[in-house]
Amino acid sequence: MERAETLIAAAKKSEPKWGQPWNLTAQVAIGKLLEENSGMRQIDPADRASILKAGIEAATKGLELSEKEGPWEKAEALSHRCQLHLLSNHFEKAAADAEQAYLLQSDDVGVLLMMAQSQLSLGALDKGIEYLAKAYKKEPRPDAAISYSRALAQRNKGSDLQKAAEVIVSLDIATVPRLFKTIVGMHAVVTLCQLANWSEAAAYLERARAVLDKSTGLTLAAGLEHRKGNNDAARVLALEAKEHLEEDTLALTKELLAQLFVNFGDVADAVDLLQELFDKRIPTFDPRQLLMCAYRLNDHKRILNACEELHKRGPVPWDVLEFEVQILEQYDSKKAVARLQAFVAEHPDHKLALLRLSAIGIKQNIPELIRSSLADLPVVDELPIEYLMPTLGILRRGQDSEKAIDYAYRFLRGHFDRREAHEAFIQIVISRADRETEPDLPTVLPGSAVYLEEKFTGQPRWFVLEDTETPVAAFEEITPKDPKTLALLGKKVGDNVVLVSASMANREATIKKIIPKYVRRFQDCMSEIDMRFGPSSMIQSVPMGGDADIVQPGLVALMTSVRERAELVAKLRKTYAEENLSTLHLYGANLSRNAYESLHDLAVTDGTPIKCTSGD
User: Fold this and answer.
1) What is the Cα–Cα distance from 484 to 480, expressed in whole angstroms?
2) Burial letters for 152-178: b for 16+ Cβ neighbours within 10 Å, e otherwise?
3) Cα 582 to Cα 605: distance, rounded to the nearest angstrom
4) What digits encode the pLDDT tens for the residues 416-434?
5) CA 594, CA 402: separation in Å to the nearest integer?
6) Spatial separation of the C-alpha atoms in residues 593 and 596, rounded to whole Å
7) DSSP label at residue 469
8) Phi and psi dihedrals of 462, rounded to 5?
9) Distance CA 212, CA 241 (A)
């Protein structure tokens, strides 16, 4: 690269109005950045920005000077600038340059590839594949073949995967440049494995290993055995591959090897490889891989160090910051707050960040952090389920506390298959319910839940009058335009209603009960939660029998369960006080509780000491 730059500088000096040296300057910038992406070159973030800026300026200068030279030279400059925009994630600008180049040279392979890459970057996969097919048909060179095969494998419709395999396997891996050798070999083996074509994958790998470095060949062999289900053989090959890694082994190989170790459960073997890739600041490497590995190893120090480095490199995406904060809260809550506040300053409408700050504010008793109005909280459709209980807790504290039940109801409506949503709705109703007012309604109104029994058959039916165009069957909803809604509105208990009008005979029912929809859903959740989610649910229903029944097995089962629990708690308290059950964690584990709940239980129990230590 350095020798090329010297020659280019000389050409610029001798021919200052020639556009080609400027185009070559842009090409050199592209080459450096591609080497960085592969792990062959390490570039500081500031230097990377300078290389991108200088490359784009060189391509623009080349474009200006090529006005007198013809369409090919202009298209070349536009293609180079397009690729630099892609490398800087300016996809709209890249697409604009590619389209201009295409108008000038629509049959040039390089231009077709840039059109394809710009379309792929915008998410237009089908359109990108069209341009890749044209480029590959015109000249099946390595970059066209790799891009075309990868895009087909990504789309994976119909015969795409078979075509992807044919394209990549047809390349002679022995004749492609070193960087392409690893890419071609890896993609070919992975694609053949996706097709479960084990014999062809093995035959291809045997040929490829003759031109691949040893660690890459062994890594691909390990990957093949893993895909075949031979994990013991795969692990042996992976460990051998790790022994043969060298400083200049491409990042692709190291990343695939780390992923294999993770798949085997050998996270400790993966984490150092991922740390190396992270430390090299490779733009295409996803640091989340390192963070998750470290988390599985409970290596909080590595996580916090990596996150600190990511903040130095530039803006950190929300999911990474969120992950960091949950660890950081355990060690430095002030720093966790500062991280969130800095993020909110840049993204003032980010409701999850505000919610996280509010949760810390409640936990740390910092009122100024708490934003508890409904307008400050995420809408139901955007709330991750793990945030549901904190959100309801925050909502209950503010001016919109009366809307907490409706919020939980709407969340349950969209997540009826999740146990956590049922439990949250039950808990919020229990904590917010109006116990002074009878739940029965005098007449049917929008939002009512109506219980009816059909005439003659006595078949029970529930209808919930919901203001929606997309009724949820599990919630027994009917829309405002449903004939049953029109028939029910304004009716009272005891009134008869025509459910279905028919020429032979109408189906009629008698209204037996009218209650708010929230009460109906609460009763349904309470009675059916263990049927839907099994014994792991927070509530277990026990049939008690009638008042006049002499034998009531449900009541016996309930009292037996209470007695057994009381005996277990008493025994644990005695063991904790007198014997060697010395930690709150062990005490809580026996009661399915955590250490904080254990501490509270012991603190409120008369005569039970709490064991302390100075730490010496």
Assistant:
1) 9
2) bbeeeeeebbebbbebbbebebeebee
3) 17
4) 999 999 999 999 998 876 6
5) 31
6) 8
7) S
8) -115, 140
9) 12
| Higher-confidence position of 3 and 429 | 429
d(CA 573, CA 567): 10
Residue with tokens 């939660």: 529
Whether 376 contacts 408, CB under 8 Å: no
Distance of CA 289 to the CA centre of its chain: 13
Q: Which helix (H) or strand (E) holds 412?
A: helix 404-414
Q: What is the pLDDT of residues 474-523, one digit of tens each?
A: 999 999 999 999 999 999 999 999 999 877 788 999 999 999 999 999 99
Short-list 242, 171, 233, CA closest to 208: 171
**DSSP 3-state of 88:** coil
Burial of 144 (0-12, 13-18, 19+ CB in 10 A): buried
Q: Is the pLDDT of residue 311 over 90?
A: yes
Beta bridge partners of 448: 516
Closest CA to 517 of 467, 481, 482: 467
Please say whether the beta carbons of 513 and 495 come within 8 A: no
Sheet holding 477-478, edge to edge: 477-478, 460-465, 448-454, 507-516, 496-500
Distance CA(485)–CA(550), nearest Å, equals: 44
Token pair of 203, please? 């035959």
Model confidence band, residue 16 (pLDDT cutoffs 50, 70, 90): confident
Tokens of 33: 């950045």
CA dihedral sign of residues 387, 388, 389, 394 = positive
Pairing of strands 496-500, 460-465: unpaired
According to DSSP, residue 579 is labeled S
Q: The tokens of 144 are what?
A: 């066209």
In this structure, the number of other CB atoms found within 10 A of the CB of residue 243 comes to 9
Give the angle 184-190-194 at the CA atoms, nearest 5°.
140
Q: In 3-state terms, what secondary structure has residue 472?
A: coil
328-354 burial: b if 16+ Cβ within 10 Å, else e: bbeeeeeebbebbeebbeeeeeebbbb
Q: Which two tokens stand for residue 385?
A: 């389920």
Element housing 465 (H / E) = strand 460-465
Residue 450 pairs with which residues in a beta bridge? 463, 514
User: Exposed/middle/buried for 605, CB within 10 Å: 0-12, 13-18, 19+?
Assistant: middle
> Across residues 101-106, what is the average pLDDT?
94
Rounded distance, CA 20 to CA 65, Å? 9
Tokens of 569: 């708690």
Q: Residue 164: CB partners within 8 Å, gap ≥ 6?
A: 148, 149, 150, 152, 153, 191
Best CA proximity match to 263, nearest among 228, 298, 226: 226
d(CA 447, CA 467): 7
Question: What is the residue whose two structure tokens read 């998750």?
Answer: 292
Q: According to the model, what pLDDT value does residue 245 have?
A: 95
Q: Do 282 and 39 form a contact (C-beta atoms < 8 A)?
A: yes
Q: Indicate left, alpha or beta for 476 from its phi (over 0: left) and psi (-120 to 50: alpha).
A: left
Residue recorded with tokens 């069209």: 130
42 phi and psi angles, rounded to 5 deg: -105, 125
